[in-house]
Give the backbone structure.
Amino acid sequence: MTDTVRITPLGGLGEIGKNLTAVEYRGKIVVVDCGIAFPRDEMLGIDLILPDTRWLMEREDDVLAFVLTHGHEDHIGALPFVLRRLTRPVYGSRFTLALVKSKLDEHGLIRSVETNEVSEHSRLALGPFDLSFVAVSHSVPDALAVVLGTDLGAVVVTGDYKFDHTPIDGRITDVNAFARLGEQGVLALLGDSTNATSPGSTASESTVGQAFHQIFAEADGRVILACFASHIHRVQQAIQIAHLHGRRFAVSGRSMQKNVNIARNLGILEVPEGAMIRLAEIDDYRPEEILILTTGSQGEPLSALTRMAFDDHPQVGLNEGDTVVISATPIPGNELSVMNTVNRLLKSGATVIHGRESGVHVSGHASQEDLRMMLNLVRPQYFVPVHGEYRHQHIHRRLARDAGIPEEDIFILENGDVLEIDADNAELVDKVPTGMVFVDGFEIGDEEGLVLRDRQQLAADGVTIEPADRILSIRTPGIREVGVSLGVEDQVVRSVERFTLILVDNDRGLGIGCDAHEAVNVVPFIRHPESSIRMEGQAGGNSTGVVKLANFTVGGSTQNRMAFPIDEREVAMPIESWTFERGESRSEHGHIADSCHG
């Protein structure tokens, strides 16, 4: 049988985020990275987006391990969710694994998942693969490129990288190691395309320090600096420069506190003695003596900076004279959230410094000249631009063509494409299922987006919540009161296609999801003739309650029936009557209402 290598991306192509690529050789699979994407504005109530790993689960006996390039959320964030169902060893650098272990601990998986620390010096056999690594510079410590050696040649996954000749930690991208790989022969290069639209070369991280010096010297009051919590190099510069200007620093935001502690414990982050104070102590110092490091550079609704902007932070209130530095650029899709936060910060009287022209941020990704340099160093037989939207991949393909790689040997893949490479040829041979899996809290589900569509409809139409006898009452012999709260205020009843069932029985304490003596439960559903609606909740003690409304239409026949299980027995009750009463109502149009209303 002819040796083949198969490359199957399940995320990260044609998009920003949820990077996950499966590399298969001789029937065994190594998964490189396992990241999340962040929800867009229209994804109501969704916290995270995971890659669809159904195909991996079908091949679980063939999966050897997860190998990580670095510790950013779009490369490691999905691990705890995937490892629940597919427990395999995880390989990563010291700082990357420290972040992963923190996540595993939060999810109760720390004892069940094997973790293996590697570095750019590591060489090991993993099934049929010879696994090795190359040091790269990025906006997080200990980033690595992954090299999967096979008898056909090496598959090199660059991960995220840049060529920084004056990095803060002194750890440069190992140009010589990439050149040696090129001399030995690289079968396929999977190259980061994130900054393929940016001309020139990416500036060094050290240039940000020059802007910090000027800001800290000129600011008359407190400096509040927001950046990614994993950007320890940026945090290190801020701490050191603030110390030179006589400023102590405090940390706000859970992820910033966690990552600063991890980096200090690993010796990656150096803090001058006496430079760090507790956030509760900032009022003990003059404003010009304070730096606050915070999360929220992406305008996240519950982040520390956003809470400050909206005067909702328990310990930090903004004052005139404060200077807020947003040391990051918005991730695509976050622009509106960031601008909303900036507007609120300005209204508070603070000075806001942000944007590329301010000098307070440089990218961690290779620009066009850097990408050309990587292509010329590695000289792969086949090239796959990854980690970016189609426009990024398209431009990266052009750069590869300019570097001498034949057009037919460059593949712009989509998630789910299977690229098969043998000794003589490379071609697309299959397509596996891919998509998005939504996470709400710690729960995975709704792969088809049904709940999301319901939320979008509720957000568009609004919802009115009232005691049932003031809007629409449906009376039955067995249940004292069943109410339907109409979805849009001031529209005629029969024009409403989505409304809310409210079930109350104060006599017998029978409720759905909430204590019926105190509150009612709100459950959205679509009205449709000859449809049945399922509603989960509690009924008759601890048994699960399901409400079925058969042939339910507003203003319909009194022969409609409602079935409701009591003590695991389904009791069908004819609806005696219903009435619609125009009453004073409380409408929350454009927002999802609370699940219970008392």
The longest strand covers residues 5-11. The two ends are 69 Å apart (CA to CA). The chain has three domains: 5-200+363-445, 207-358, 461-597. Residues 271 and 450 are 49 Å apart (CA to CA).
